[in-house]
Design goal:
This protein is of the alpha+beta class and 559 residues long. It is 41% helix and 19% strand. It has 18 helices and 19 strands. The strands form 4 sheets. Strands 2, 3, 4, 5, 6, 7, 8, 9, 10 and 11 form a 10-stranded mixed sheet that branches. Helix 7 packs parallel to helix 15, helix 13 packs antiparallel against helix 14 and helix 15 packs across helix 16.
Amino acid sequence: FEPCRDVSYGGVLCALPALAANGLFRHLRSTFPTLTGYYTTLHVILLLAYMALCRIRVVEQLQYESPGELGRLMGLDRVPEVRCLRKKVTLLSQGQDGKAGEIWNGLLSKDWMEQEPVLAGALYVDGHVRLYHGKTTKLPRRYVSRQRLCLRGTTDYWVNDALGQPFFSIERTIDHGILEAIENDVVPRLLNDVPGQPTKEELEDDPYRSRFLIIFDREGYSPSFFRRMWQKHRIACVTYHKFPKEDWPESEFSEVTATMPNGEVVSMKLAERGSLVGTEDPVWMREVRKLTPSGHQTSLISMAYGQEGLQDAVALFSRWCQENFFRYMMEHYAIDALSEYRTEEIPGTKRPVVNPAWRELDRQARSARGKLTHRQARFAALTLNTEADEAKTAKWEKQKSKLREEIEQFEHEVDSLKKQMKSLPKHLEWDDLPEDAKFERLAPSRKRLTDTVKLVAYRAETALSNLLRDTLRRADDSRSLVRDIFRSDADLIPHPDTDVLEVRIHTLANPRSNRAIQHLLDHLNAAECTYPGTEFRLSYSLGEPKNGVTQNSAKDQEP
């Protein structure tokens, strides 16, 4: 490090203590291969984290940034160019048979759960469709709720805590819904990773105690799945009641005050009952309803017998933190962006896929039903005025006759398509799929590595944001202020005699923000973090350079 002033993105050095606390530099030697050359594994991982926090969304955007300025942040003369960085990331991601990023994420997620065992006791699971607009392979279509369309892509099932902080995600190129993903991929991993699970003897002594709680939306409504999770693993599930019965009397609801996981105190009207849920094989569950000011009753069901209905309501109504996480990661961290254009074969899949012939018949049947419904509505709306003359009556009869013929034609077409669909299997095994209908998956190795770095960056940003919330009148402004800090310039002043690297953050536009930043810097200084790979202890300050201190500008020194 050399003394320099006005270093671009210098404020991102404030995230180093949070990045280290969230495990960015953990398990690197045991997971990734050793890189040869000027840039080490530490340099590449740290640069990817800086890029994520500074909103340099993809590797290709690095060509529009000053390599010398970013190099100053890492004690280098410059950061690697785009081609070199892509090569380094590829070498790292190919470690351990291309699973280095996945293994690293698994180790970090287990560490995060052990650090917050209370938050790991209630886990939120939801799917997010990552769209693919390329033409290299024809991925299967799936419904994208945010666009209300069926588009090509892959589904990632994310596991978050009650604050929206991510633990891990599971990619499903061939997807059969959230329940199948939870049962086959999510639950086996959680049984190994979630800390503080009760022993077999403790579960036998208390028949109402569960291992942990899983919360998801209406897509996962299935009483038989709830029963299976409880009987097989003693896992409690919470979701919305998809088919609630008649409204309960308003006299049963009482005003309660609850503290949400983020500290917000809310009041709501709740009522609780025991209900038999399901038709064929009903399951006895707890049903909790919330009465809104408009009179609507929101119903939820739960098999968490060992806790109160208020806790179920708080857990389920905090589920929007995961939706906010998806939106924030798409907008600020480009989590849907492609990391590479390579595709590869789906390894040893045993999941059936939709029969292309059946899908085509289903498309035709949906189209015919839509046309039929449209003509039936026109037929019902076509009325005749009793005072109409003979010409208008003849025209009306002609229109009625034409619509009746079209309705009969489409009814016959729909019935014929239904018979053809019944004669074909809806799903086929992968080996039975026609060759022209087979597809490949997007290469996951680089994506898993960059996504893990982005998860650590997001958790670090969240930690810094939580430190600022106490000093701001509007707590929601904390994240925008953290982003301003990352993008701000800073002066770097190394002190080799005392092994201190002073980072002087430039002041912002108003005193209110400066007071909040000073509060954050006090916490960072108390942490006494050491810059990774060096012996320099980081010291943070706010303000202009002191008189008599002369430094050379990094921008002037850059070749």
